[in-house]
Amino acid sequence: MKQLIETLNAPKPTGPYSQGVKAGGFIFVSGQDGVHPDGSTAGESIGAQAAASLDNIKNILAEKGAGLSDLVYVTCHLNDLTEANVKAFNEVYAGYFADVEVKPARITVGSQLMETDVEITAIACVD
């Protein structure tokens, strides 16, 4: 059985999708851009947008009592996949998972993003 996840602490979907869905012991979080819950861009830096994306994911997970430590897989999209951007992204990302013993598996890819420079999707296991 699928359960819809909605929160005012993350941006409203801009298309026909859910912020998150809980199903079969997992939470699937839709791509979270580098924007604040009100939809405003979190700034021009990769770091600021990465932080906003991860905060949104954290807030969506919290609606079902989960957290970043429950993540098992993360897909990170960067608009400009350069060494400097990946380094800046990783600095922020590492801070969010500093206290997580088993960090989620992850891929970081270059993508043509429309309005931001960062978008992150995530899957959490919540047996």
Automatic annotation (TrEMBL):
InterPro entries: RutC-like_sf, YjgF/YER057c/UK114. Gene3D superfamilies: RutC-like. The keyword GTP-binding does not apply. GO terms for molecular function: hydrolase activity. The keyword GTP-binding does not apply. Its EC number is 3.5.-.-. Keywords: Hydrolase. Pfam families: Ribonuc_L-PSP (PF01042). This is RidA family protein. It comes from Virgibacillus kekensis. The lineage of its organism: Bacteria, Bacillati, Bacillota, Bacilli, Bacillales.
